[in-house]
Structures are given as structure tokens and as C-alpha cells.
Specification:
single chain, about 350 residues, alpha/beta, eight-stranded mixed β-sheet, four-stranded antiparallel β-sheet
Length: about 350
């Protein structure tokens, strides 16, 4: 079966520096993953600021093009899509962004973000039919139309605005939703409600999600699989249960040990050292070498490949060079059992 979404060794380089554009920043390097079409999954893309998460989201949505590699949707390269294929992609791959307020035009009622996609993609034949679709979508994310429609964005809470954006995506019956830090701008009391809405998309509507976050706690609660990014490269990947509970890569271990514990008398396990200067693509070794407590001489020479550290996880670290090397970087835990 052809995967719904396939990312093949994608990289993104941003160049600056005047006419000759000699200065370059590598935002993403050699990233590959697959979203299969046989079952819905929620995949986390996690890492600290500057790890390449948002760049990846923009690539997956087709907002920017990769500098190398390719992204395929139902087997077709995004760059090679014709008009009909592009329209299908725009409808079936939707986004939920970090700041729900920025998505809205303050001069329009919130209805505008719901009626626009209905009209653009011809989802309803009459106004009444369109209103019924919108009402249904709002109910599905836990909102009451009579308390939501006809209001301006500033009259609603951040949680309500974000759930309207989830309802907007749901209207189009997408195959994949890319959610970029969807709960980072809302109160902690509302996060559970929004996460529940996202989980409902998978369980009730069969929609796969790519959940981009810096928060490993919500990733663990919501997701099936996870990628840990560091400076645009994959540090570790596999099932969220395996990666979070038994992290192998030193960077993942630092992230996990920095999660606040429920015991106020117990000190947090480990502070992640401050990030050093941004990698500009000139270094040839492991990007984590300068911060790694286990650094070896070879770490400064060449970046490590992904080694299969368990049946459900893989880590890019020379500590595991006695394990099989993965040629590709699968996202689903069951794919790790059968690397290509």
C-alpha cells in the first residue's frame, strides 16, 4: 500500500548574506518518515527551540520547499503536483497552529474561518447545509454554536479559538493534521480539553496527526510514535512508550530528566545545558557532541547513523554501534522491526 505521506531524506537550508548568499543555516538535515494509510497514528516531533520542528511543519504543509530530498503525498512529489492534486493535498492535509489568535482577522466574526473552507472546497450546496456542517464540527470539538458563532476573536478564550481551528480542520475531513505546538498558548486548565479533541480526531474520524511540541509530557499522553530532533537532525525515534520511558540518546535522557516531578521536595533530575552556537552546516561530527557527557573522539569526525537500540526505537549515537544500523528512518514503531 502506498503511504499517505512519505518524507525522503529531506533537508532545508536557509541562506543569507547578500548577493552571493554565502552564509547558510541548516534547519533540517536528512529527515525521513512515513505515515501509512492502513491505520491512523499520532506522531510527535519533539525538541527544544531551534531543533527544526517548525521548519518541518512548513515543509509538510507545502508552505516551503525542501532544499534536498522529497515529500510525497499518495506517491506524488509535492513539487510535481498538478492543479487537481494540489487541491486535494490542500484539503486533506490541514494545520492547527501555535497561536490561535494570529489566524483570525479581528474585523471578522469567527464564523469566517469556518465558512471560507466550506465555500472554497464546495462542501455544501446550500447555506443551511453549510450551517449544519459547521454546527456539527463545533459540537465534535466540545463547543456550542450558540455561544461561539457571531462573535469576534477577542470575545472568545484562547481554548475556544483553538478548538474552532480544530473544527475548521475537521470540516474538510482531512487525512492528516499537522498540529504545531497547539496547546502552548493556552492555559494549563484547557490543555486537556484540546488534547482530548485531538485524540478524538484519530479515534473517531481516523485522522493521523503530526504533533509538534517541546513538551514531552503531552507527547507521551497523546502520541503513538515520536521523533526527537536536535539541531535539525534525528537524535532518537520509535514508540513513545519506549523512547520516553527508556531513552537511549544522551540528549533524550537530558530532556526526560528535565521533566518536572510531582514531588515538590525532590529536585528536578537534570538541567539541559544551554545551547551553544547554532550549527551552520560546516561541522562534520555529531551536532550534540559539544553538550554530550559521553562524547568520544569519533563524535567530532562524523555524525552517527541511526542504530536500532530496541525492537521499537533507534538512536543516532555511537554508544550503540554494536547494534544494526538503520538505512531509513521509519516513524512507526512496527516499522523498526522491518527496516528497509
Amino acid at each position: 500500500m502506498t503511504p499517505v505521506l512519505e518524507v525522503r531524506a529531506v533537508g532545508k537550508v536557509f541562506r543569507a548574506g547578500g548577493f552571493f548568499k554565502r552564509d547558510a543555516t541548516v534547519a533540517l538535515k536528512d529527515f525521513s518518515m512515513t505515515i501509512a494509510g492502513d491505520r491512523p497514528v499520532i506522531t510527535a516531533i519533539a525538541g527544544e527551540s531551534g531543533s527544526g520542528k517548525t521548519t518541518l511543519a512548513r515543509l509538510l504543509l507545502g508552505i516551503i520547499e525542501p532544499s534536498m530530498g522529497e515529500i510525497r503525498y499518495h506517491g506524488v512529489n509535492l513539487k510535481a503536483m498538478n492543479g487537481d492534486q494540489r487541491r486535494r493535498f490542500r484539503q486533506e492535509v490541514q494545520a492547527v497552529f501555535q497561536d490561535p489568535f494570529e489566524v483570525y482577522n479581528p474585523f471578522y466574526h469567527v464564523d469566517h474561518v469556518l465558512t471560507t473552507p466550506v465555500a472554497k472546497f464546495g462542501l455544501a450546496r446550500t447555506r443551511d447545509e453549510a450551517y449544519t456542517l459547521i454546527e456539527t464540527a463545533l459540537h465534535q470539538v466540545g463547543l456550542r454554536p450558540e455561544e461561539t458563532l457571531g462573535r469576534y476573536p477577542h470575545q472568545l478564550s484562547g481554548g475556544q479559538r483553538q478548538r474552532i481551528m480544530i473544527a475548521r480542520a475537521l470540516l474538510l475531513r482531512p487525512k492528516i493534521i499537522v498540529a504545531d505546538e497547539p496547546v502552548s498558548m493556552v492555559d494549563a486548565s484547557l490543555r486537556a480539553t484540546i488534547l482530548e479533541s485531538l485524540l478524538k480526531l484519530k479515534q473517531e474520524f481516523g485522522i493521523s496527526l503530526i504533533y509538534i511540541t517541546h513538551d514531552l509530557t503531552t507527547a507521551y499522553q497523546l502520541c503513538d510514535d515520536i521523533y526527537i530532533l536536535y539541531r535539525g537532525t534525528v537524535a532518537e525515534t520509535g514508540s513513545v512508550e519506549q523512547v520516553i520511558k527508556q531513552p537511549k540518546h544522551p540528549y533524550t535522557q537530558l530532556l526526560v530528566s528535565s521533566i518536572p516531578l510531582p514531588n515538590p521536595d525532590q529536585r528536578w533530575g537534570g538541567d539541559v545545558p544551554a545551547m551553544s552556537e547554532r550549527n551552520n552546516g560546516s561541522g562534520g561530527g555529531c551536532p550534540f557532541a559539544a553538550r554530550c557527557p559521553h562524547v568520544m573522539e569519533r563524535c567530532h569526525i562524523a555524525p552517527p547513523p541511526l542504530y536500532q537500540t530496541s525492537a521499537e526505537s533507534a538512536a543516532a549515537c555511537y554508544l550503540y554501534d554494536d547494534q544494526p544500523e538503520l538505512r531509513q528512518r521509519p516513524v512507526a514503531a512496527h516499522d523498526l522491526l522491518n527496516p528497509h
